[in-house]
Amino acid sequence: MATSVGWAQDLWPSVTKEMKPWTRWWWLGSAVDKPNLSREIKLLDEAGFGGVEVTPIYGAKGYEDRYIPFLSDKWLDMLAFTIDQAKSHQMGVDINLGTGWPFGGPQIDEQHAATKLFLDEIELKMGQPISFPLGVSDTKQSFSKLQALRAYKSNGEEINLDSYMHNQSGSWTAPENVRVIALFSGRTRQKVKRAAPGGEGFTLDHLGKDPVQRYFNHFQKAFQGKDLQLRAFFNDSYEVYGANWTDQFLEEFEKRKEYKLQAYLLDFAGKGNDKEREKRVKSDYREVVNAILRDNFLIPFTSFSNQHGALSKNQAHGSPGNLIDLYASTDIAECETFGSSFFAIPDLRRDSTDVRNVDPDPMMFKFASSATHTTGKKYTSSETFTWLTEHFKTSLAQAKPEVEQLFLAGVNHVFYHGTTYSPEDVPYPGWLFYASVNFTTNNSFWPHLPGLNNYITRVQSILQTTQADNELLIYWPIYDVWHDTKAPFKTLSVHHVDDWLHPTEFYKQSMSLQRLGYSFDFVTDAILAKSTVHDKLVVTAENARPYKVIYIPSTQYFSEETLANLLTLARNGATLIFETLPKDVSGLANLESRRKKLNDLLATLHFDGDEENQYTAYGKGKVYLTNDVYSALETEQLYAERLARTGLKFNRRVTEKGTYYYLVNHTDKTIDQFVRLNSEAAHYTLLDPQTGDIFNLPIEKSDIRLQIPAGYAWVVYASNTDKVDPDYHYINQPQEEKVFVHPWKVSFLHGGPQLPKARTLNTLSYWTTWGDAVADKFSGMAAYETSFTIENKSDKGYQLHLGTVGESAQVWVNGKDAGIVWAHPFTLEIGKLLQNGKNDIRIEVANLMANRVRDLDKRKVSWRNYHEINFVNIDYNDFDASQWKLMDSGLKGPVRLFSY
């Protein structure tokens, strides 16, 4: 895979800073200074980054005299300087609205800190008293409040003791054997994780209106009178451990659900005998948590951001609520990749000892992109490459298919995780963050990083200037997720999809439809409530692209209001497909009246309960009831993309002028087939995102030939108006030109700790196989050079295959740059650079940092010395590379030249 220097600009969109990848930029101890800020921003710009996301965190030991307190005048001056420097390089700046994560800090006292509930149980014998004031069982609590007090007789009869709650003395005596349940609010006592100097303190109560305002007021005061010119404020994933309450929760609950939660304390505590009622009470609780998290935190966060001329950007995963609605509550929804995936791409390294036991699920990314698409917003971003592999062992080739999974799921703006600010005077390997791929200037692959960055920029330029062309809306049955008898609080995190996502019919049907070749977004009750119908298409928001069908997978619990909204859409012309009809309403509030409404609405469909597959006209629209969604879609002349049968993955996008197909081959072989796309057109254009080249694709009987190697990607543009020259030249019957017969000279260009001596090789090999102790510990770049003779025929193309590369390379032919080769299949076209007769070739190969860090640890050099978590390995144990095997480094080849 090559990245050429030039860009074919006639069809590629003009590049903006948002089209480039950005990186999370950790400021360790906020120990920044203007010369180093200026230097690093210049280097980031040259590497192809479009912006930075500043996140202050803990610092490196020994540099405390450089620390700058968060939000101090000096810190704000450094931020302003950063913004000015970024602007001079046409880059942007986002900041974390806090330090570390989650939100919190010195402005959050115990009263406004993250809050949890305690359900204390006391068994009393007849005649046994309890004394007041009643204290919470957790003796560490220094700020708690008794919120409800109930006693229960053996037959389940309740005795309301709330009138005793505020007693500062006295007692109550049990009239018979009872179980007393006391509901207390207390504090989690969680502090901000990885806080920067000046940012230390309690985690915020995200569910409380007053605590949230207190938090934002702190920044309002700090930013007063300053024109920040930030692009966005950022909130990290919801890792507010155990924060399941706010002091006003009971009032909020009663206002929203019209009954008192404390009246069902036995069910809420999981101590009752009616498990169905327990599920319903807990579902109502979870629904209220979701609502107040949105209303009290996320909407005010967006309002605060917009008041300061910035966008709000939020990671909803991990939240205790409807993730899609929570993603949609801010300007930019941001998902996260965590861990590494298996890909069948030949020779793509995946060492089991270097990956976490977490496989990212691309379907999870669609929760964020669906929020963006259905609300008509522009960007879905991603925290990308978190713990992709063990430190210092991640190649650019490993990063490519991971980021492609994001693009395929609708993400269109990636943020690397990430880059650590590191002053020039800090010895190798510089300051580093403990959970990231180190996209730092000390990384050996840094000179080749533009290869990956340019690829991402080209793909994002298409994804950001088009709309997702997804036919289906798939309803997410959130009430089925909320109805269970587990602990009341329920967070939906990327690490627990095996629990809340994978077992569901929703997930299974979504996977099936995707494999068939359908494109879809997920939709929620709240989004459906705002949807309308135009020309039989479902419109979810003013700027959203309309959808053709709404699909409702099997669901047990359903909102009668949502059913009414769905049937209104059908009456106005929409097509609905139910896998099965909803069984019952959700929750406990007004249960019987809501249940009657649901059943009355279902009766209007007049379905025969014994029939498996049936449909009915409903107003101007249709409603299907079938477990064969595929046949129903085809009945509606809605066909899957046949290209899915090839094994290619795709993301289809549209503009007013045509349709773009982003196609990726993650299989183990070249896919070479004729395919008819659903978007038929007069002309098809190949935009190669790896190189920037543009070619016309010939048409044969409405089909086009796709020839995509394993690990490669194409963008195919279908248009009735735009046509380009020249035609793409397919590789038919390639012939190897056996030209590499001369020895290779290897010289080391830059890196350390020392430059190994140059040598000549008769056969290509890694420098780590030479038995050279200096080469074994070397991380950096070496040049492999030779010459060859060929008769260059103008009617032929010439493709260079580098074979096995450890880990990336830049190729020069006759002194001219042929491109960066940074991922599989490690090939590039060089025909235009060849000359008749003798040709010189130079392949500059960079390895990774691993071998040099291994040497540091073998020699027990102290290089990792940080406050708080210090520096851990992928299993969160103390990092030690001294026992690592050497990583293959250099060019093993064989280097081969093919004509075609």
TrEMBL record:
Q: Is Nucleotide-binding a UniProt keyword of this protein? A: no
By its UniProt entry, which Pfam families does this protein fall under? Glyco_hydro_106 (PF17132)
Looking up InterPro entries in the UniProt record yields: Class_I_gatase-like, Galactose-bd-like_sf, Ulvan_degrading_GH
| A molecular function GO annotation | hydrolase activity
Keywords recorded for this protein, A-Z: Hydrolase
- Hydrolase keyword on record: yes
The record's PANTHER family line, in alphabetical order, gives:
DNA-BINDING PROTEIN (PUTATIVE SECRETED PROTEIN)-RELATED, SECRETED PROTEIN
Record-given protein name = Glycoside hydrolase
